[in-house]
């Protein structure tokens, strides 16, 4: 039995990420935008990673990504509320409420059934959204420019502000996830994965633990979706399509379960790879992605982060 | 009138769903692999069929023979690709966690989708001739394509054939033994790896046949496998993963749910199938036909 990775020194890596975010501020704008969307999506992958610690693979995390995005989009475009101080909490709250309701049902399931049912609920939302003509069906809709705690940046300064916002929220999300993983409920996720029945013999309810991790992941993913919507200025049903969810799973797998910053960084790697791959061989992008995925599964079953972890010891 | 339309559409759609889903459930039942790449095999079947038909028609051979060509192309394509994937990739990964195998087949799905794009390009293929060949018959005053009814026949033949093979032939019975207990079957001298290879190849043939049967009805374009796979998932999950009677019932549930929606409330068409799946799972967590399993300590 390999020792489980612990998170005692993970704060250090969050600090490293914070440093990288600051460095990113001075990079060319296309690169900075790449980092920004990667961070927003990375937060969703972090949600998938948390569930993976309990041995559960959510093949429908796009659901909460989409709920967060649409919560922001609907408030900004339809209700005229355009301040991030309200938009992001709304995204998190919407994801939390749906997460709590669905969590009641989903916490009964394990293994492949958990994967299937999370997939099913995300596809239900997709099925509804593509038929919702008032929300632009498959095209989705655009989101107006947002204000920051009452301050409205001018056109030129907008990318700076949304980048800063994304950086701050994602770092906070990482710290939150870290605090959760170091709490009792978070630490016991490993036990859920290793042996659930022994856990219940010891007087703990695995079901409650799964319920909590599902809700925590929902909130992180909702925030990620909200940030992504603000960054890109657009939402569409593709956010909850199964291929989007598959990408989050891929990134979580690529990153491994060893650190809360790993999914965010792995997402950046993916986006970078995608940018160049689409340039060089536009029709072979999925081929590259799939091959990389197989390579990780075979060669690095504990993800890229295991390289970092190995270098540390 | 509407009722007749619902009945016929439901029947047709159920048959199609069964064809698409039965290979998936067979592979899961025997190998415990939830094969996302199934969608890619479906697409490959459709493409190979479209290409083969294109060649066939341009050679000016009798039109009726095209159906033989469809069947043959699907059989060969499914068997070759399935066996290749099983030998080259999957064989090395047996014994991994079920969830990891889902990710492996997801990776295969991505790779194969692009392989299809690189082989056939991104433009659409149309082979409508077989669809139009039989013309239509009228139910009351509702015209209905005969081809669609033949798909129902194909699904029934596939279902009965599979049942016969699993229950009445030696290889089939060995396969059921592997399903019941892999280790004991191996200990009794059943060549489990051979059974696995055969199962996977048959599963992919079924996917390719479904693709070939659908090719004349659609524009064969990149991305046709993406939607199919999640529909097939819904069907097998409703019926219970790995159960062939389950696939029949799941296909009928999902097929009629969609047919009713299309005629009564079209805006809920896609939603209906997943809603049925979610409801069934909420009541019977492991699907309608799942066997009870003890918890291992």
Automatic annotation (TrEMBL), chain A:
Q: Which CDD domains match?
A: TM_PBP1_LivM_like
Keyword annotations of the record: Cell membrane, Membrane, Transmembrane, Transmembrane helix
Which GO MF terms are attached to this record?
branched-chain amino acid transmembrane transporter activity
Q: Which domain of life is it from?
A: Bacteria
Intracellular or extracellular location(s)? Cell membrane
Q: Which residues form a coiled coil?
A: none
The membrane topology noted for this protein in its Swiss-Prot or TrEMBL record is: Multi-pass membrane protein
Q: Which GO terms describe its cellular component?
A: plasma membrane
Tell me where the transmembrane regions lie.
Answer: 12-27, 33-50, 62-81, 87-105, 112-129, 161-181, 208-230, 250-273, 285-305
Broad class of where this protein is predominantly found: membrane
Q: Does the keyword Membrane apply?
A: yes
Pfam family for this entry, one: BPD_transp_2
Q: Which InterPro entries match?
A: ABC_transp_permease, LivM-like
Q: What is this protein called?
A: Branched-chain amino acid transport system permease protein
Question: Which species expresses this protein natively?
Answer: Sagittula marina
Automatic annotation (TrEMBL), chain B:
Record GO terms (molecular function): transmembrane transporter activity
UniProt keywords, alphabetically:
Amino-acid transport, Cell membrane, Membrane, Transmembrane, Transmembrane helix, Transport
Look up the record and give one Gene Ontology term from the biological process aspect: amino acid transport
GO cellular component terms listed in the entry, alphabetical order: plasma membrane
In terms of one coarse class, where is the protein primarily found? membrane
This protein's species is Sagittula marina
Q: Which InterPro entries match?
A: ABC_transp_permease, BCAA_transport_permease
Name its cellular compartments: Cell membrane
Record protein name field: Branched-chain amino acid transport system permease protein
> Topology relative to the membrane, per the entry?
Multi-pass membrane protein
Q: Which family does it belong to?
A: Belongs to the binding-protein-dependent transport system permease family. LivHM subfamily.
Q: Which residue windows are transmembrane per the record?
A: 13-34, 41-59, 65-85, 97-116, 146-166, 195-216, 228-256, 268-287
Instruction: Tell whether Signal is among the UniProt keywords.
Output: no
């Amino acid at each position: 039995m390999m020792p489980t990775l612990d998170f005692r020194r993970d704060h250090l890596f969050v600090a490293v990420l914070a440093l990288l975010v600051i460095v990113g501020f001075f990079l060319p704008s296309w690169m900075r935008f790449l980092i920004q969307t990667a961070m927003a999506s990375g937060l969703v992958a972090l949600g998938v990673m948390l569930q993976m610690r309990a041995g559960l693979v959510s093949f429908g995390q796009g659901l909460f990504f989409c709920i967060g995005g649409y919560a922001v989009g609907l408030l900004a475009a339809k209700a005229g509320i355009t301040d991030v101080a309200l938009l992001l909490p709304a995204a998190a709250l919407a994801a939390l409420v749906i997460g709590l309701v669905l969590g009641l049902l989903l916490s009964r399931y394990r293994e492949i059934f958990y994967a299937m049912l999370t997939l099913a609920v995300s596809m239900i939302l997709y099925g509804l959204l593509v038929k919702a003509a008032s929300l632009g069906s498959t095209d989705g809709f655009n989101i107006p420019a947002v204000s920051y705690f009452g301050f409205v940046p001018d056109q030129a300064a907008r990318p700076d502000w949304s980048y800063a916002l994304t950086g701050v929220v994602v770092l906070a999300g990482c710290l939150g996830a870290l605090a959760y993983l170091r709490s009792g409920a978070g630490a016991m996720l490993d036990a859920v994965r290793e042996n659930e029945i022994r856990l219940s013999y010891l007087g703990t309810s695995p079901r409650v633990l799964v319920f909590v991790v599902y809700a925590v992941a929902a909130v992180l993913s909702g925030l990620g979706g909200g940030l992504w919507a603000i960054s890109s200025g657009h939402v569409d049903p593709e956010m909850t399509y199964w291929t989007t969810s598959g990408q989050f799973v891929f990134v979580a797998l690529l990153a491994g379960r060893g650190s809360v910053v790993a999914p965010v960084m792995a997402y950046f790697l993916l986006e970078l790879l995608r940018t160049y791959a689409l340039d060089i061989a536009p029709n072979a992008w999925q081929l590259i992605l799939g091959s990389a995925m197989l390579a990780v599964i075979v060669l690095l079953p504990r993800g890229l982060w295991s390289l970092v972890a190995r270098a540390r010891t | 009138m509407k009722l007749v339309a619902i009945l016929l559409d439901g029947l047709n759609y159920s048959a199609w769903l069964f064809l698409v889903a039965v290979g998936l459930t067979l592979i899961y039942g025997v190998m415990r692999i939830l094969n996302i790449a199934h969608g890619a095999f479906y697409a490959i079947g459709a493409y190979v069929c479209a290409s083969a038909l294109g060649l066939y028609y341009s050679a000016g051979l009798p039109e009726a023979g095209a159906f033989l060509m469809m069947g043959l192309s699907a059989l060969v394509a499914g068997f070759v690709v399935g066996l290749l994937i099983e030998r080259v990739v999957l064989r090395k990964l047996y014994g991994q966690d079920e969830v990891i195998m889902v990710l492996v087949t997801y990776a295969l799905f991505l790779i194969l989708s692009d392989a299809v794009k690189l082989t056939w390009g991104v433009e659409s293929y149309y082979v409508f001739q077989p669809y139009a060949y039989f013309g239509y018959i009228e139910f009351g005053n509702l015209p209905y394509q005969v081809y669609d009814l033949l798909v129902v026949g194909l699904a029934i033949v596939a279902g009965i054939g599979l049942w016969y093979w699993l229950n009445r032939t030696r290889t089939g019975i060995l396969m059921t033994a592997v399903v019941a207990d892999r280790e004991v079957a191996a200990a009794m001298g059943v060549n489990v790896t051979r059974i696995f290879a055969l199962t996977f190849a048959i599963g992919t043939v079924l996917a390719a046949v479904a693709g070939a049967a659908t090719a004349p009805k659609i524009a064969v374009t990149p991305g046709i496998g993406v939607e199919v796979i999640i529909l097939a998932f819904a069907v097998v999950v409703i019926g219970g993963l790995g159960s062939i009677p389950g696939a029949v019932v799941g296909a009928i549930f999902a097929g009629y749910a969609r047919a009713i929606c299309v005629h009564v409330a079209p805006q809920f068409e896609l939603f209906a199938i997943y809603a049925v799946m979610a409801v069934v799972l909420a009541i019977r967590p492991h699907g309608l036909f799942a066997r009870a399993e003890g918890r291992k300590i």
